[in-house]
Design goal:
The protein starts with a helix and ends with a helix. By secondary structure, the chain is an alpha/beta fold. Helix 2 packs across helix 11. 40% of the residues lie in helices and 14% in strands.
């Protein structure tokens, strides 16, 4: 089963467009776990258990683990997700962007060491930075396209030339991902929820690609506008929320509160579908 197949299956089985981002910050853990980086796995596993039937994907952010020397805990967490939610794909949020043999090692890290189903990549160095990941059959890669941060305008929103009507850089990335770079149907795009008009433009250029859409929840993205702009019946959207779910409560009920917030967000997204 390919990554795209897994996404479509999870979308149907869990009735969901919601991706739960796993960005563990020990300083924000609830009482009993707070400040203890050795409990990252315990915290995240509780979140996974509470939300596994509500999600289209889980998205661990690798920096939140490696910063605390918790790569071993990330490996355990990936195994846990595959055990308790085998139908839910895992997107490793790493935003790698190197080329050649280095990119090959990063691909091994994502797909062989951690067993991720997909990974996020920066396409700034061109197809050379994407191709090594496509050699892993059935795996997926989401290319940064129109990100949710204001500084994205510095590059992504610039025109490729001074000719009137020339495409913006992010539109060009979308065209490459939809077309010549997508050798085996493995690519998707990252488009921020804070720019619903740009989601609509990306969707027009890349009508069949899955979109990973961060920025809903704590970052203030409009969930309803996001779904209206990006949803297509044959091209899943993966709408990520991290902090709003992870830290819905600072008490012992944190897992139950995370489930309640995930359920609320899932239903909001479903109600916004055209």
């Amino acid at each position: 089963m390919t990554f795209i197949d897994m996404l479509l299956d999870a979308q149907q089985l869990n009735g969901s467009m919601l991706c739960v981002g796993l960005d563990p910050e020990p300083s924000r853990f609830p009482a009993g776990l707070k400040g203890d980086a050795n409990r990252i796995y315990d915290f995240c596993a509780r979140i996974v258990d509470a939300t596994a039937d509500l999600t289209i994907a889980f998205k661990p952010q690798i920096a939140y683990f490696s910063a605390h020397r918790a790569e071993g805990q990330l490996e355990r967490l990936m195994e846990h997700i595959r055990r308790v939610a085998p139908h839910v794909p895992i997107i490793l949020d790493a935003k790698r962007g190197d080329i050649g043999s280095t990119a090959e090692q990063y691909a091994k890290e994502a797909f062989e060491r951690y067993g991720a189903d997909a990974v996020t990549l920066s396409p700034f160095m061109g197809f050379d930075s994407v191709q090594p990941y496509l050699k892993h059959e059935g795996k997926g890669a989401f290319l940064l396209c129109r990100t949710s941060n204001p500084g994205g305008d510095d590059l992504q929103n610039q025109r490729l030339s001074s000719v009137e009507g020339a495409p913006l850089l992010y539109e060009h990335v979308a065209r490459l991902a939809q077309g010549p770079w997508n050798l085996n149907g493995q690519l998707g795009l990252v488009v921020g929820a804070t720019y619903p008009a740009e989601i609509e433009r990306v969707r027009a250029v890349a009508p069949t690609l899955p979109l990973l859409i961060p920025g809903v929840g704590a970052q203030g993205g409009d969930a309803a506008a996001t779904v209206r702009a990006g949803w297509r019946a044959n091209a899943p959207i993966v709408v990520n929320s991290s902090r709003a779910i992870l830290y819905a409560s600072g008490g012992e009920d944190f897992a139950q509160a995370a489930r309640a917030e995930a359920l609320r967000t899932r239903e909001l997204l479903a109600a916004s579908r055209p």
